[in-house]
Specification:
12 strands, about 220 residues, alpha+beta
């Protein structure tokens, strides 16, 4: 073997390795691949280049998903919370209410909302004596119905199912009852409400109104 041929083979052997050069510090993902010679160097370069591209594609596919993760968490939280139950619209009813123009202590009192129920009581007074009372319950049923149950003066319970409810008004009806067939509560503002009992058909002559104002519980001074 001649010295010239031996030198050429040594140079070829040394050049079969893969040369990798970064093209800039500001673009670390851009890598220039070059094979200095034919054969194993070129094949190794192609294989390494393919692996590098696959890693880049995987990283790029993950980044959009990661960017959406906070939005997905918010959406999941919102879905878990769900829309408010109908009874939650009546949480404002909690507290003590004095009947306008009536003796002190005449009116209604409602418990706070808990366990899907609110419990209430009412009292009517005349000449310093209790002449009427009623125990009441608002219950959110598992089937979605919101039911107002009235036990007036110790008589049997009568159920009225809500036909309309929003943040300021609730209407309950039982057309099979003699009277009332409809009970409604309407919030005028945080300190005043208007209750009405009537027949199912709108007829002012067969309706009784109960305007009330909020008072601190335990206070018996009429406004």
């Amino acid at each position: 073997m001649t010295a010239k041929r031996s030198s050429r083979m040594a140079r070829r052997s040394a050049m079969t390795g893969l040369q990798i050069k970064r093209t800039g510090a500001d673009a670390p993902d851009r890598i220039e691949f070059s094979a200095a010679a034919h054969g194993t160097g070129r094949s190794a370069g192609a294989a390494l280049y393919k692996r590098h591209i696959l890693r880049m594609e995987a990283a790029m596919s993950i980044r959009p998903a990661l960017s959406l993760l906070p939005l997905l968490c918010v959406a999941a939280s919102t879905h878990a919370a769900g829309p408010p139950q109908p009874i939650e619209h009546l949480a404002w009813l909690t507290g003590c209410w004095q009947l306008d123009g009536q003796p002190a202590g005449a009116g209604e009192q409602w418990s706070s909302l808990a366990g899907g129920t609110m419990l209430g009581s009412s009292r009517s007074l005349r000449d310093g004596r209790t002449v009427g009372f009623e125990f009441m319950q608002l219950r959110q049923h598992d089937d979605g119905r919101l039911v107002f149950t009235a036990l007036p003066s110790g008589r049997d319970a009568t159920d009225f199912t809500t036909t309309h409810i929003d943040g300021n008004e609730a209407v309950f009806e039982n057309p099979r009852n003699d009277f009332p067939q409809r009970i409604s509560y309407r919030r005028i503002d945080d300190q005043h409400l208007h209750a009405r009992i009537s027949i199912a058909r709108d007829n002012p002559s067969q309706a009784t109104d109960f305007p009330m104002h909020r008072i601190p519980c335990g206070v018996t001074t009429a406004k």
